[in-house]
Amino acid sequence: MELKKLDVPTTSITEVKKSPMDVFNQAREAGTAVYVFNREKVAGVMLTQEQYETLLQELDYLRQRPMMEEEPEQPPVAGLEEFLQIMRQALITGASISAKNLDERMVALGFITRKTGFGGVVDMVNELKETGKIVYQLRKKQDGKSVTAEVIGEQDNQTQLFDKLIIKKIFLKEK
Fold first, then answer.
1. pLDDT > 70: percent of the chain
2. Can you tell me which family this protein belongs to (predicted)?
3. CA 120 to CA 126: how far, in whole Å?
4. Bridge partners of 96?
5. How far is CA 71 from each of CA 19, 33, 99, rounded to the nearest angstrom?
6. Residue with the larger pLDDT of the pair 80 and 24
7. Which of 13, 17, 112, 114 is deepest in the core (most CB within 10 A)?
């Protein structure tokens, strides 16, 4: 019988006692949690502060998602103000978010993905560095007009992960 190997880093409670910072560094380098074992059973999981805050933000988003799914798939014809409010619930300004997570949330709101092929997240981060914003195009036109969203922000320098962003403002424009 072959033992199943975990796809995440593991450590022992003894190693945590010796050097907790080594375990945090292991989590940071792997970009995931580290399972802590005590006598061949999982005793817990260790995360970096950034990983924990990202999980909390994603949990908050997922809890709000059923409310968002009740909304129409496209912005209301009455105007973009209501749709902007929905966007602001899905994208919390001032909080750190990964470029991948930002793109997934924008796609869920009806925008065209920015992750085109290999390196899409890198392109998003570069666009943000160069212009201070990431521009999204809504899939469906509203009253014959194209709608774009400008996500204004900056790269989060408080984390070692290159794709973390801080959203400052969100604008919707009709053309």
1. 82
2. Belongs to the phD/YefM antitoxin family.
3. 10
4. 166
5. 49, 34, 24
6. 24
7. 114
| 10: amino acid identity, one letter | T
- Give the residue carrying structure tokens 């750190």: 96
Closest CA to 111 of 89, 85, 141: 141
> What is the rounded average pLDDT of the residues 22-31?
87
The residue written with tokens 């959203």 in the block is 167
Please answer whether residues 10 and 37 qualify as being in contact, where contact means their C-beta atoms are separated by less than 8 angstroms.
yes
Looking up tokens 């995360």 gives 47
- In three-state form (DSSP H/G/I as H, E/B as E, the rest C), the secondary structure along 78-132 is CCHHHHHHHHHHHCCCCCEEEHHHHHHHHHHCCECCCCCCCCHHHHHHHHHHHHC
